[in-house]
Amino acid sequence: MPQNKTPNTAPEDYSKSKLAVWGQITATLAIGLAGILFTITNSSEQEKNRKNIMATQIMSDREKSETDFRQSMFRPLIEQVLNDKLSLENRFNVFQIFQSNFSDLFNSRPMYDILWKKAKQEIDSNKNVDADRDIIKRLISLARMTNEKQEGLIGAHPKEKSEKKLARHDTLCWTYTEKDGDGDEEGKEEIKIIVDSITADGIKIRMTASFFDLKEKDTSVIVANNGRPFGVSYFDSPFTDNTLMPDGDRIAVILEDLNPDDKPDSATIRIIHFPADFVTVGYRPSINKLNELIGNKK
């Protein structure tokens, strides 16, 4: 009797099923798309890096060019300002050029004092009295303009009662409050200034600065010049004449005006309070302090 035989059937090839084919197509497309996205992203990042490098190079070249230009001017200008053989008018005109180019890098107080003293000597000897009095006024005006320029570069905090007319032995107390990102008070600085004396050339003051850390419940006190009086003239500038606070902020006292006709004599001073992340000329912070400044700025 014949037996029924089951026909031989090949195992089903799932790789050729519609689902597998579409899966392969999808995978291939995904890999291709990922490659395209990577290429685009990588190209974009490379272009961004290229632009950053170019911008840095441009800034570096500009700074070098400016530095070289200033270097070529520096010595000739100083030599003319200090040249006693030139007229006081010419020396002052050269000094104006010097201040326009170097007031942000160089403490010009000694040159102010030299020209001021020369003008006073000529007035006392009855030489060119009117011209020399005009030079004195122009020196004061130049100092004020320089201070305003520096204050603009500093980005000082808003001033609270920062300008005031004071007589001898008067006291000025000025407070600045610091707030955190949430608007809560985290610190307070109190500046106390006592006018010790007033002369025709400037004033002498005593200054105490107290910093109150409201979160840590801590107080730091700085007594400027170890409690002894120190001079403030028209020619002190914020960049070079300031007091460092415990939190890194700085306080500068600027003489705005002398009032010898007042009875008693008085002077108008202004306080400039500028932030810790502004690195002043000649200040060399430690690596830890520099990292802290950069971290706080971020």
Q: Could you list some keywords that capture this structure?
A:
single chain, 298 residues, alpha+beta, five-stranded antiparallel beta sheet, four-stranded antiparallel beta sheet, 5 helices, 44% helix, flat
Element layout with pairings:
Blueprint lengths: L17 H64 L6 H15 L6 H16 L4 H26 L8 E5 L3 E9 L5 E15 L2 E12 L4 E6 L6 E3 L10 E2 L5 E10 L6 E9 L12 H11 L1
Antiparallel strand pairs: 1-9, 2-3, 3-4, 4-5, 4-6, 7-8, 8-9
Structure description:
The protein is α+β, with helices and mostly antiparallel strands. It folds into 2 domains: 57-151, no CATH class; 158-297. Helices cover 44% and strands 24% of the residues. Strands 2, 3, 4, 5 and 6 form a 5-stranded antiparallel beta sheet that branches. A hairpin with a 5-residue loop joins strand 2 and strand 3 (185-199). The longest helix is centred in the N-terminal third of the chain and has 64 residues, at 18-81. It is flat, with a radius of gyration of 34 Å. The model has no long low-confidence stretch (mean pLDDT 79).
Basic shape = flat
Low-confidence runs of at least 5 consecutive residues: none
Provide a count of the helices.
5
The H/E string reads: HHHHEEEEEEEEEH
Give the DSSP E fraction (strand runs of 2 or more residues). Answer: 15-25%
Largest sheet: 5 strands, antiparallel
